[in-house]
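Consider the tokenized backbone below.
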């Protein structure tokens, strides 16, 4: 009897492991260009830099609440809070996450689907003194 229970428990453990692995949600994106701006003073930001060509992999791991940008210097953002979805006056969709980076600094990562521009997608990273954006597309 004990042997039968152990086999059953073992089978349940294997099935739970497979189902957890099978349903992990990782989304892969690729950038096409990059732009940045910085804070000049308390009231003014610089203009966005001219977009430069970029081809970096970006992953969103919903199972581990993590966003990773595989740029020259790998950027890792742990998602602290999903702040919701909004739609602006142009009909563009915006998803926002409050995050902590691998240096312990807080930021916001926002995803925009520009419905007003044929569904073009962008990813923004907002810190208090610098922002950058990637024009992106889905690999999935």
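A designed sequence for it:
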């Amino acid at each position: 009897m004990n042997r039968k229970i152990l086999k059953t428990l073992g089978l349940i453990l294997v099935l739970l492991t497979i189902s957890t692995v099978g349903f992990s949600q990782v989304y892969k994106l690729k950038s096409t260009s990059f732009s940045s701006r910085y804070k000049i003073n308390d009231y003014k930001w610089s203009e966005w830099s001219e977009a430069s060509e970029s081809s970096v992999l970006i992953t969103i791991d919903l199972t581990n609440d993590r966003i990773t940008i595989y740029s020259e210097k790998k950027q890792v953002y742990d998602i602290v809070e999903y702040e919701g979805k909004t739609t602006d006056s142009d009909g563009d969709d915006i998803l926002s996450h409050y995050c902590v980076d691998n240096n312990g600094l807080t930021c916001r990562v926002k995803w925009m689907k520009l419905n007003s521009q044929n569904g073009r997608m962008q990813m923004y990273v907002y810190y208090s003194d610098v922002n950058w954006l990637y024009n992106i597309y889905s690999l999935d």
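The mean pLDDT is 86.
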